[in-house]
Design a protein that fits this description.
Number of domains of chain A: 3
Strand content of chain B: under 5%
Order of helices and strands of chain B: HHHHHHHHH
CATH class of the largest domain in chain A: Alpha Beta
Strand content of chain A: 15-25%
Radius of gyration of chain B: 27 Å
Helix content of chain B: over 70%
Low-confidence stretches of chain A: none
Structural class of chain B: mainly alpha
Number of helices of chain A: 18
Oligomer: heterodimer
Mean pLDDT of chain A: 84
Number of strands of chain B: 0
């Protein structure tokens, strides 16, 4: 007898308003304020009227002078509009990590390394009370039920850093919100009456969609601030001079697909079988005319091929990767034998991408490429073949089961996932003990997790390419060590709000009750235990790399970038 | 598998060369070199200490001393070579006297348990992966209790209305759910006991009412789940148990070796 089907109600947008405290009077006031007063309500569809967008996707904040609004390096899903008062953006030099609530990990010296011999007897996650005092220069207070971090010595910050004031009507944070890139600057309130409207990504997307002025404004900023530098760093365009690169930048279109908040619901939907390639938003459909080369700027996309009644996954691609170049380069050289897109490309979760139109590719980009850098032509035999081309077939060595498993569970997001070969793992837990020995007697992962095809992805922080855990940390305690570094948590500034643990779609962050050095639980004034978020930090402070990987006697455990299927394929075939 | 083969291709030739060289040196110097037995004894002791160091190494994962995988390979091949050294030290003669016999027996048991352990470590993980239903060893008792609670509720709980199922449970299933069962059968990869139990369940099901058939189908599923837990327990316990033999015996061997050393130096007189 089969088990009854799990019927899930697909979560609806606006089930929960961004700011439940926002009143009708607030919305009226916003509608009377620029730029909303210049927008045409009739231009918005009935399903997403302007008023409802503001009521459900916007949140009012009031900041006092010195309170940090966004930090450099944070990931955010929203943009800000200054309604009243002023804010200040830090230009140069950047604020030091301590002022952003962060802690730059330092490799243990000889004494700290040797001290671990006797620290093994300490209670797990124990701290000296003095260590938990906030670092000098940074304070915290609670306002509107939110914890706000503020700069204590503002005059000194203003003296030591070049800053620029922003006033009512200015927008900021829209590029980071739209492209899911880290915030590029720190911005703090510059008046005690700073009132800001935070608009979450969905609302901003709709406002841009139905208001030409806002769309033009954001597109201009995007092209000026983000696009030119991104294109300059893309190998495909490295042979172009400034003038031709500017022409490419002018012609590039950008688009977003999928759901920005994919991490919240995908697991439930996947378990109910609702996540299928055919149901993911299509970016490119197999067989269509190749109208442009797709550059993934953020997020992930699935490359698939029609087979029978469905589609099979051939690969997935992430930020920095290109799709469709081979078809367009082929058509440019073989005008009498054009080909269409050979595969489909579908957004997985959230995808932000740039499209370089075919015309621009043919006129500017392709002529600049040396012949050896052009992708191979499509031989007639390969076009009619059922099998994927060799570069994709190589990746297929990981097997269809593992490929689907990694895709369905979004594991390709991990840049340092803990992969365990179940054929070799003797379940000895040496990895767990090694982790505990190097981390305050508290292992930072569970040797357990989803498995398929003989591998298990353990519940350990994967140090994601798209770290959704970093969205919404009120104190900046969870952060990347650097822009390309590990995701780490500063225990001193972590306030135990669980925001990161709730956001993590892989259950890799755990809240633990902390103790003092005698083993007594630390409690607040209401006698509730004080908790901190803990997770794998890839042994960033230890010498020799992750202790879990080094301690596996059978080579069954590795930390791996699952966005590189070649790496996984090599490891599986080892 | 490729890596194991690669390690074998590196380790085995080294082991063979070391064995041949040792055999050659033994033939040339045994009986001719003064204090030869002391020399081979000290080399043997040094090798044993290096082997024991692997266990110490595992307790110091924060020190950057390379990967455990490398040290295990060293441990294995040095372990095989230590058997050669041991035979050389004995001059290929059987041990004499109670003390020597105990010492030799300890050495043999330590070596044999190591060989058994590595064989288990190579074979059993694959079996666990093939069987599926991955479960953490420490969680097995709690899952077993949950299984038993569900089975009891079905068969003899307040909502259960079948005397047949109740009796069958008390006579055939209560003991099965009460504790881990069929340890050796699971190790031997045999499903005979659980197959027999399921056949008996099917017999009862054949003559039961519709409601009884539904309850018995659920009971059969619970039996399969419990059998899976027992399988994991047997295999995972075997993967752990050999170490509880290998390590204490190693330390016992070291204690006896120290005594052996004291006796040899205490009573050798001018033999050096």
């Amino acid at each position: 007898m089969s088990a009854p089907a799990i019927i899930l109600e697909r979560p609806q947008r606006w089930d929960a308003a961004f700011d439940p405290a926002l009143t009708e009077a607030d919305v009226d006031r916003l509608l009377a304020t620029a730029p909303f007063n210049a927008m045409q309500p009739l231009a918005f569809p009935k399903r997403t009227p302007l008023r409802e967008i503001l009521r459900n996707d916007a949140k009012l904040h009031r900041f006092r002078r010195g309170e940090i609004i966004v930090r450099q390096g944070d990931y955010g899903s929203s943009a800000f509009l200054i309604l009243n008062g002023a804010t200040r953006v830090v230009l140069k030099p950047d604020l030091p990590p301590a002022l952003l609530g962060r802690h730059a990990p330092v490799r243990k010296g000889l004494f700290r390394t040797l001290a671990q011999f006797w620290n093994g007897r300490r209670p797990p996650e124990s701290f000296a009370r003095s260590r938990l005092q906030a670092s000098a220069g940074l304070g915290a207070r609670v306002a509107d039920q939110e914890t706000r971090v503020f700069l204590q010595d503002l005059p000194r910050v203003l003296n030591a850093h070049r800053t620029e004031q922003m006033t009512a009507g200015d927008f900021f944070g829209e590029i980071a919100a739209l492209s899911r890139m880290p915030r590029t600057s720190t911005i703090f309130a510059d008046s005690d009456t700073a009132e800001l409207l935070e608009i979450r990504w969905q609302g901003l997307r709709d406002l841009m969609k139905y208001d030409d002025a806002l769309r033009r404004h954001i597109n201009r900023i995007y092209r000026e601030r983000a696009l030119a530098s991104y294109l300059r760093a893309t190998p495909l365009f490295r042979h172009l001079d400034k003038e031709r690169l500017d022409r490419v930048a002018e012609a590039v279109e950008f688009a977003t697909f999928g759901d920005y908040d994919w991490s919240g619901d995908y697991k439930r939907l996947a378990q109910a079988g609702a996540v299928r390639p055919e149901k993911e938003p299509g970016i490119v459909v197999e067989g269509d005319y190749p109208n442009g080369v797709v550059l993934l700027r953020a997020g992930f996309a699935r490359v698939s091929q029609k087979t029978g009644g469905g589609e099979r996954t051939l690969n997935y691609i992430g930020a920095g990767q290109i799709f469709g170049l081979r078809e367009i380069a082929h058509n440019w050289r073989e005008k009498n034998r054009p080909v269409n897109f050979q595969f489909s490309l579908r957004a997985i979760g959230y995808t932000h991408l740039l499209i370089v139109p075919t015309r621009v590719m043919e006129e500017i980009v392709l002529p600049s490429l040396p012949a050896r850098e052009l992708p191979p032509l499509w031989p007639a035999a390969e076009l009619s073949a059922e099998e994927p081309p060799p570069e994709l077939a190589r990746r297929e060595q990981v097997g269809a089961e593992i490929l689907e498993f990694l895709t369905e569970n979004r594991f390709f997001n991990g840049t340092a996932s803990m992969v365990i070969d179940l054929d070799r793992c003797t379940r000895c837990d040496d990895c767990v003990r090694a982790c505990a020995a190097t981390h305050d007697n508290n292992p930072r992962f569970l040797r357990h997790g989803p498995s398929a095809g003989g591998i298990m992805i353990a519940n350990a922080c994967m140090h994601c390419a798209d770290p959704v855990c970093m969205i919404g940390c009120p104190t900046g305690a969870i952060h990347r060590e650097s822009f390309a570094g590990q995701v780490v948590i500063n225990p001193i500034t972590c306030i135990g709000c669980k925001s990161c643990a709730n956001n993590c779609p892989y259950d890799a962050i755990r809240m633990v009750e902390i103790r003092d050095q005698s083993g007594e639980l630390m409690v607040d004034q209401e006698m509730r235990p004080i908790t901190k978020a803990t997770k794998c930090d890839l042994c960033v402070e230890n010498h020799g790399g992750p202790a879990c990987e080094r301690s596996c006697p059978h080579g069954a455990l590795t930390r791996m970038n699952l966005n590189q299927l070649d790496e996984l394929s090599r490891w599986l075939g080892k | 598998m490729k890596r194991h083969r690669r390690q074998l291709f590196t380790g085995l030739p080294l082991l063979l060369v070391a064995t041949v060289v040792t055999g050659y040196l033994h033939r040339r110097h045994a009986g001719a070199l003064p204090g030869y037995a002391f020399l081979t004894g000290w080399v043997l002791l040094a090798a044993m200490l290096v082997l024991t160091f692997y266990n110490v190494w595992k307790k110091l994962p924060f020190l950057p001393f390379g990967r455990s995988e490398f040290w295990l390979q060293l441990h294995l091949y040095l372990g095989y070579f230590t058997v050669v050294l041991f035979l050389v030290h004995l001059n290929f003669r059987p041990p004499r006297g109670v003390f020597e016999i105990v010492l030799a027996a300890l050495f043999t048991f330590v070596s044999a348990s190591g060989v058994v352990g590595i064989l288990l470590s190579r074979v059993l993980p694959r079996r666990l992966a093939t069987r599926g239903g991955e479960v953490i060893y420490e969680k097995i008792p709690a899952l077993r209790v949950a299984c038993r609670t569900q089975a009891e509720a079905l068969a003899v709980g307040p909502d259960s209305q079948s005397v047949v199922i109740g009796e069958f449970y008390l006579h055939r299933l209560a003991d099965f759910f009460a504790r881990p069962r069929n340890f050796w059968w699971h190790l031997a990869e045999s499903r005979r006991p659980v197959a027999a139990l399921l056949r008996e369940l099917e017999d009862v099901q054949r003559t039961g009412s519709e409601a009884e058939r539904v309850a018995l189908a659920k009971l059969a599923e619970l039996v399969r789940q419990k059998d899976g837990l027992d399988y994991h327990r047997s295999v995972q316990l075997s993967l752990k148990l050999w170490l509880f033999v290998h390590i204490p015996l190693t330390y016992g061997l070291l204690v006896f070796t120290a005594l052996h050393l004291a006796l040899v130096y205490g009573f050798s007189g001018g033999a050096r």
